[in-house]
Design brief:
single chain; about 230 residues; alpha/beta; 8-stranded parallel β-sheet; 8 strands
Length: about 230
Amino acid sequence: MLKLNEPMIIVNFKTYLESTGRKAFELAKQAERASKETGVQIIVTPQFVDLAKIAESVEIPVFAQHLDSIKPGNNTGHILAEALKEAGVTGTLVNHSERQLCLSDIQTSIELAKEKGLITCVCANNPATSAAIAALKPDITSIEPPELIGTGISVSKAKPEIITNTIDLVHQINMKMPILCGAGISQAEDVTRALSLGTQGVLVASGIVKAKDPYNILLAFANATIQKNREDNI
């Protein structure tokens, strides 16, 4: 199973045209370059049709955007854990606000992923849900208030209490679980503030994918994590 390094940056490609097909491949290579230059773990989550090609072409972790709570059989239009493993991915998002699941399906998806050695990053929209999800023992939790997603208004600035409350509740259940935050993360300052609040990284999307220069934004994000680590170790 993939070794997680902290802090980490997960880039959700979603279904933007800027991260589809050839452009998805180019964006993944830019993320790989930024990761190699800084030593910061950057994880990319392309669309399903691009997963296998990208996983074969980059040396950074590749996650899926979703995993269905199904086993092999007569299911149509679903995402199978075995298929993700075969495609070469190392993990998956679960329960993103744009692909929400009920708690029982989240639990099954986590269990199926673990059976195949896949990392799970499970998203939640509020602190209470984050705590409920932490009890299911995913590898990572990520707090993302849906009202801020895609706005450019960072959760770490606009609603820091959501992050700190999530950390408090999740750590009552599992002190070692990495906690990320997302929604509106678009500047290096947003990353620095998120880490200062106690997170182990960020989950970002449009702030990278739709940027005019994704590579330099990724560098800025990665360097922000490095600078914060240096300050913490002084």
